[in-house]
Design goal:
- With about 220 residues, this protein is α+β, with helices and mostly antiparallel strands.
- The chain has two domains: about 70 residues; about 140 residues.
- Helices cover about 15% and strands about 55% of the residues.
- The strands form three sheets. Strands 4, 5, 6, 7, 8, 9, 10, 11, 12, 13, 14, 15 and 16 form a 13-stranded antiparallel β-sheet that branches. It has a three-stranded mixed β-sheet with strand order 2-1-18, with no helix packed on it. Strands 3-17 form a two-stranded antiparallel ribbon.
- A hairpin with a 4-residue loop joins strand 11 and strand 12.
- It is elongated, with a radius of gyration of 32 Å.
Length: about 220
């Protein structure tokens, strides 16, 4: 709606501004509230003997892999880091599966170890390399090789049955690779954005009604 104010014989036109501030607010909420996650994949390989679901194997190549979010890395003690997640494995020539136990990448910097720990069974598999002394599981590294150590006994529960690894272990390797994930709005930001969008819609509707309403004139006395 346009409001004409007559001061003496000269009309002064007052036009309501478009709700640009509301638009800016919504855009600010959508932009500022986005959380960018960085995914990371840990991979460990080693040669060992053991059994999977009751089937024995000797000197087989073992590959253990986990993909998780770097924000899940936890500090358990001085230079001890862990990142639990969904961890899978393969045994060359035998099969593979997914750990049912809580298994995740782990680092013990004080003894230069990096590998995987089974928090459920209290066991672990590590590669020894001095580069792990300052590593915290939150960035890419490797592949680094070194002497593998275990064992994974008692065995870990997996989707393919009980998984056990015995020595002697051959040399192994550990690798971590990060991949930036697409930014995703946080839930709280989405809520604010929806509220802002609703406010914007209401403001636009009100403005549309004002524009279609008849003009009004108000006469003010002229200055003496």
């Amino acid at each position: 709606m346009t409001l004409s104010i007559h001061r003496g014989a000269e009309p002064v036109q007052l036009q309501r501004l478009a709700p640009a501030g509301v638009v800016a607010l919504v855009l600010l909420i959508l932009g500022a509230g986005r959380a960018t996650a960085e995914m990371i994949t840990y991979t460990m390989t080693l040669t060992a003997s053991g059994s999977l679901g009751g089937a024995s194997f000797n000197d087989a190549l073992i590959t253990i892999t986990e993909t998780s979010d770097t924000s899940n890395v936890r500090l358990l003690g001085p230079r001890i880091f862990i990142n639990d997640g969904t961890t899978m494995f393969t045994v060359a020539g035998v099969g593979g599966g997914t750990f049912n136990d809580l298994v995740g990448a782990a680092v013990r910097g004080s003894i230069d170890y990096a590998g995987f720990g089974d928090s459920t069974a209290g066991t672990s598999l590590y590669i020894e390399n001095t580069a792990f002394s300052s590593y915290d599981l939150s960035s890419s590294i490797g592949p680094l090789t070194g002497t593998a150590t275990g064992p994974l006994v008692p065995g870990a529960s997996t989707t393919s049955g009980l998984f056990e690894l015995f020595g002697p272990f051959g040399d192994g390797s550990f690798t971590a690779v990060t991949v930036a994930a697409s930014s995703v709005p946080e839930p709280a930001s989405l809520t604010l954005a929806l509220v802002g969008a609703g406010t914007l819609a209401g403001a636009c509707l009100a403005r549309h009604r004002r524009q279609n309403a008849p003009s009004q004139s108000v006469s003010l006395p002229a200055h003496p």
